[in-house]
Amino acid sequence: MIVVAGEALVDMVPVGDDELAPLAPKLGGGPYNVAVALGRLDVPTSFLSRVSSDHFGEQLVKRLHASNVRTDLVQRGPENTTLAVVGLAEDGSARYAFYVDGTADRLVEDPGPLPAHARAVSFGTLSLVLEPGASVYEKVLRRESKRLLTALDPNIRAGLIDDPGAYRARFRSWLPDVGLLKVSVEDAQWLAEDGDVIEIARTWISQGPAAVVLTRGGEGLSVITATGQVDVPPAKVDVVDTIGAGDTVQGALLAWLHDHDALSVEKVRALGDEEWTDALTFAGAAAAITCSRAGAEPPFASELTAALGG
């Protein structure tokens, strides 16, 4: 089983091209999207978070169940659901404004050691920024890294980071406890305060992760390991928007590792170029399907199999 830890929220997505187009609620949040992607790809998955008991929270939990995600580790509370108001650029990329004060996901409590049958745990996005929850998730990360493959997608939302220098230092402190790091080119440059992303990734490899996967937008995906680099081109798609694309990459990568019995730091480190090409192609095809439709809607296994010609 893979545990995904972090926030669930509601994206308010514009409907139409007008600058003040009506907003439609779409269920999301980086870790939530990763959990949905994994569940839809038929991987045993459990979500760890605190979710509101309001209407949006009820719908978030309902969609987890519909996506084959377990909710044993989901805590519930009366606080409001976090809202993210989404604006779309001309290329379909998303820009966010967040409403986070006093919301449920910030108040998560440490569940203690994760279930014995868990093999990996994934972290990222707002949950590692907003206190007091950020310290709780960090504690889980450090504790579980001793026995599980830990995956991290920082998925930077700079507008919510009050002290960039402190966050960058905190990120560096996580690296010895991270087995797999997935990061966009833009986030890598923000975290390193600019520079060549490949050299940045190699520096991070020396500090802990077995692999760094880079999402490169229209240039596809790359992975940097201690022994080299593998690149795959992007899957062709008519982009509706990119909401949830990076989260789908994270979920699909973990799904591929699960399906190929590679959910450990040692096995990730041992993957060869051909295996990484297969894994990145699988993840890129999943993300392309997500980009082809509005909101964060990762594919089900049957859809991805058809897209890959299986």
How many β-strands, per DSSP? 14
Question: From the 3D coordinates, which CATH architecture would you assign?
Answer: 3-Layer(aba) Sandwich
User: Given the C-alpha coordinates, what overall shape results?
Assistant: globular
- How many structural domains in the coordinates? 1
For CATH, the homologous superfamily is named as Ribokinase
Cα distance spanning the termini: 25 Å
The helix/strand order is: EEEHEHEEEEEHEHEHHEEEHHHH
What is the averaged pLDDT score? 94
List the keywords.
single chain; 310 residues; alpha/beta; UDP-N-acetylmuramoyl-L-alanine:D-glutamate ligase; 10-stranded mixed sheet; 14 strands; globular
Chart the SSEs and their pairings:
Blueprint: E1 2-5, E2 9-14, E3 23-28, H1 30-40, E4 45-52, H2 55-66, E5 69-70, E6 74-77, E7 82-88, E8 94-99, E9 120-124, H3 133-144, E10 149-153, H4 164-174, E11 180-184, H5 185-191, H6 197-205, E12 211-215, E13 221-225, E14 228-232, H7 245-259, H8 265-270, H9 273-291, H10 301-307
Helix pairs in contact: 1-7, 7-9
How would you describe the overall organization of this protein?
The protein has 310 residues and is of the alpha/beta class. The chain has a single domain (2-307), classed as UDP-N-acetylmuramoyl-L-alanine:D-glutamate ligase (3-Layer(aba) Sandwich), CATH 3.40.1190.20. The chain has ten helices and 14 strands. The strands form two sheets. Strands 1, 4, 5, 6, 9, 10, 11, 12, 13 and 14 form a ten-stranded mixed β-sheet that branches. β10, α4 and β11 (180-184) form a beta-alpha-beta unit. α1 (30-40) crosses α7 and α7 (245-259) crosses α9 (273-291). It is globular, with a radius of gyration of 18 Å.
